[in-house]
Amino acid sequence: MRLRRASDATDSVRHRLEYLAVRLVQQVVRVLPWRVVHACGTLLGWAFYVLDRPHRRMAIVNLQAAFPLRSHEECRTIARGTFAHFGRLLVELLKFSALAPDRILARVEFDGRDRVEHALAQGRGVLLFTGHFGFWEQHALGHALGVQPMSVVARALDNPLLHDMLERVRTSTGNAVIYRRGGLRRIRRALQSNQIVAMLIDQHMQAADAVYVEFFNRPAATTSAVAALAIRTGAPVIPAFALPIGSGRYKLIYEHPVEPPRPDDPDPAREFTQRCTDVLEMYVRRYPELWLWMHRRWRDVDAGAAATRGMFPVATQDTDNEI
Questions:
Q1: Which of 105, 176, 129 is nearest to 283 (CA)?
Q2: CA distances, 36 to each of 95, 123, 219 (Å)
Q3: pLDDT-based confidence at 178, cuts 50/70/90?
Q4: 65-74 long-range Cβ contacts below 8 angstroms, 24+ apart
């Protein structure tokens, strides 16, 4: 009992310190010009690249396995760029989310928005999917203002103070958050009401609904929730990505809907999940520095002494949920 109380007290102190640090950064970046915010995020990412040896090593190992024809030095360069990107993602999100709605819209460009509108016209809801790639958090904020608010499926953060802060950010433009544990009923209700639901599909799954699909020519345990919901409800499935276009501006891309498998397919959920994963892999191959290489996506690869906590709480939590 004493050990548990001591651990709880330590966690409480750490949570408060993490929260205060993020709040301090948030207050500072609000008044800084975008070029300075970009530079600060880059420096933050580089600092973690230098200090966080386990995740640095994991990123390089994953890159070498995904791109066997690239040299070790090339993989190190991409890994360094990945850390820099996630530093920018965090810092730019703190500034972007504090903008007024009209200023948010002025900083995003839409590519393929008509595909979402056409899918909504079918009346069965829409499933958007992406990965921990590019600026997915900014995408959700801009999407709510430029298309319509949606429900974002997420995992609760371990730090309750940062969890509440991130939820305020995610809902600031009208979106709702559905937490994965026990959220299936809310997702179905949203689709039945012809609403949009967005999910991430690129983390290792331990739940019973995981399927193994090929991701960079290696089997990866992947959620089958998107496929199962699409097959059951008939909701169109649209890949969505957010790319940086400079000076704190982003291009929000909506790809063509993923073709569903044939009715006679022997394993439609796996086939549908593979098709979704193929689109994500296409984008990661184009822009490898924008994806989260520093987590254990392939559990069959020994990435060394992997840390159990991520450098960025928004991005690096494993998913072990029912959805």
A1: 129
A2: 11, 44, 41
A3: very high
A4: 65/216, 65/218, 65/298, 65/301, 66/216, 66/217, 66/218, 66/288, 66/293, 67/288
Contact 250, 93 (CB under 8 A): no
For residues 247 and 245, give the distance between their C-alpha atoms in angstroms, rounded to a whole number.
Answer: 7
Question: Which among 147, 27, 12, 47 is positioned nearest to 97, based on CA atoms?
Answer: 27
CB-CB contact of 173 with 144 (8 Å)? yes
- Going by pLDDT thresholds of 50, 70 and 90, the confidence category of residue 320 is very low
Q: How many Å apart are CA 140 and CA 264, to the nearest integer?
A: 35
Residue 33 CB partners (closer than 8 Å, separation 6+): none
Name the token pair of 284.
């990661």
- Residue of 301, 289, 290, 295 whose CA lies nearest to 55: 295
Provide the token pair at 99.
Answer: 């903008």
- Contact indicator for 221, 205 with CB cutoff of 8 Å: yes
Strand (E) positions, the chain? Answer: 108-111, 126-130, 151-154, 176-179, 196-200, 210-215, 218-223, 237-246, 249-254
User: Quick one: pLDDT band at residue 323, thresholds 50, 70, 90?
Assistant: low
292: burial class by Cβ within 10 Å (0-12, 13-18, 19+)? buried
